[in-house]
Amino acid sequence: MKSFIEYSPNTDFPIENLPYGVFTSSKNAENHIGAAIGEWILDLNVISHLFTGPLLKDKQLVFKEGKLNSFMGLTRSHWIEARSTIQSLLDVSNATLQNDAGLRERAFIKQSEAKMQVPADIGDYSDFYSSIHHATNVGIMFRGKENALPPNWKHIPIGYHGRCSSIVVSGTPIHRPYGQTLPVDGAEPHFGPCRLMDFELEMACFVGGPPTRLGERVTAKQAEERLFGFVLMNDWSARDIQKWEYVPLGPFTAKNVGTSVSPWVVTVEALRPYIVDNYPQDQPPFPYLRHDDKFNFDIKLEVDLKPETSPVATTISRSNYRFLYWTVKQQLAQQTVTGCNLRPGDLLGSGTISGDTSDSYGSMLELSWKGTKPLRLLNGEERKFLQDGDTITLRGYCLSENGVRIGFGSCEGKLLPAVPFQE
Q1: Which of 136, 156, 256, 346 is deepest in the core (most CB within 10 A)?
Q2: How many Å apart are CA 135 and CA 131, to the nearest integer?
Q3: In 10 A of CB 58, how many CB atoms?
């Protein structure tokens, strides 16, 4: 498979990837759906008439929408046909697009000239707690080694419903939040700017397929028909606010300050060659959570921290999606076991992804071990938690033996000072 669009062998977006996104540009003031190929975006709005396969010939209007929800709301068979159509149109042996100069001019735009948007209208967002290394680390810090994992952790994918209105696309700055904290145990609470601001290295999966009815369940064995594709996610966390507020109901304002996602949705089909063994589960799950097939992925993950005062970024973490104990199929099964209904564009966050070594932890909380082991950056500065002006950049990619790279682009956000509170 070779594209007539030339690109670097190191690109995140070869013809084997073709992730979906939503963008505006000088050519289109309104949102258009596109697919990334090298440094370019193929505008699917412009070429919607070329989706002439048996499933999509009557569904071409989904590519005229301003978000991906309608396309996500089709079936996995539709998604596979769409991917095959785009690959065929970009193939060097296909003249349809390649030799139509006028259509090519309208259909391609440089990524550098586009403004990316959140790819879907996210109606619901759940964040899980699926990395055993992260859960163990946090448990050791706050409960001790003997009680690191709560009794339910290996029986149930733990999660909470997040605030979808504050999910933002990569590049959107985040302000340090105000909130209540308890600086000294046993003292009175304090109100003011968060002092322990953190990032969380996560990935998230967009739900697809037709909406389900209230009361309808989706088991882990059925879940693949409902999984559209993945993005990088940084679930910004105010640790001191979280510590004071999370008992007894869990995260609230410490997490709704902002959640950053990368703009390109990498499909399950693009990731399929990189499937690896599921993480061993030593406690057999209940039947609704079981699936016999492999559905874990070798996605290499990196986190950079760049201070505002430095031109140099420091890679502070290298982790991998394969460290997740609970698969996304199990996460979806848990979400729906009560009969909770699904809608296209719903988002499932993985939870912080930490590996088994100290340089693979997915948060400052772990990397600095609750502030007791400051990180030294390349410019000589140290960090226990994030400082105003720091930019956090997440990257993720798969790499085949023959050098094909399936990447997610980047998920970037800069921490700005708190907005003064007016009483």
Answers
A1: 346
A2: 6
A3: 8
User: What is each CA distance from 223 to 159, 207, 250, 285, in whole angstroms?
Assistant: 17, 10, 27, 16
Q: Which residues contact 302 (CB under 8 A, 6 or more apart)?
A: 315, 317, 318, 319, 394, 395, 396
Residue 276: name the closest of 305, 300, 256, 306 by CA.
300
CA angle, residues 16, 21, 26, in degrees to nearest 5: 115
Token couple for 157: 């994918």
Evaluate whether 17 touches 266 at the Cβ level (below 8 Å): yes
CA–CA separation, 272 vs 270, rounded Å?
6
Tokens 């997440």 -> residue: 394
User: For residue 130, which amino acid is it?
Assistant: S
CA distance 410 to 207: 21
**362: which 2 tokens?**
């997915």
CA distance 141 to 147: 10
In tens, the pLDDT along 48-90 reads 999 999 999 999 999 999 999 999 999 999 999 999 999 999 9
Q: Structure tokens of 277?
A: 């063994």
Lookup result for tokens 């003031």: 29
Any idea how long the chain is?
Answer: 423
Read off the pLDDT of residues 109-135 as tens digits, 9 standing for 90 and up: 999 999 999 999 999 999 999 999 999
363 CB-near residues (< 8 Å, 6+ apart):
134, 198, 199, 200, 201, 237, 352, 354
Please identify every stretch of the chain with a pLDDT value under 70, giving residue numbers as ranges.
423
Distance, CA of 184 to CA of 106 (rounded, Å) = 61
Q: Which of 32, 78, 133, 134 is catalytic?
A: 134
CA 376 vs. chain centroid, Å, equals 27
**Placement of tokens 């874990």 in the chain:** 296
190 is catalytic: no
Give yes or no for a contact between 207 and 72, defined as CB atoms under 8 angstroms apart.
yes
Note whether 107 and 42 are within 8 A (CB). Answer: yes
Nearest to 47 by CA among 114, 125, 105: 105
DSSP code of residue 4: S
- DSSP state letter for 277: P
Q: How many CA atoms lie within 13 A of 403 on its CB side?
A: 4
CA distance 119 to 383: 33
Q: Are 84 and 76 in contact (CB under 8 A)?
A: no
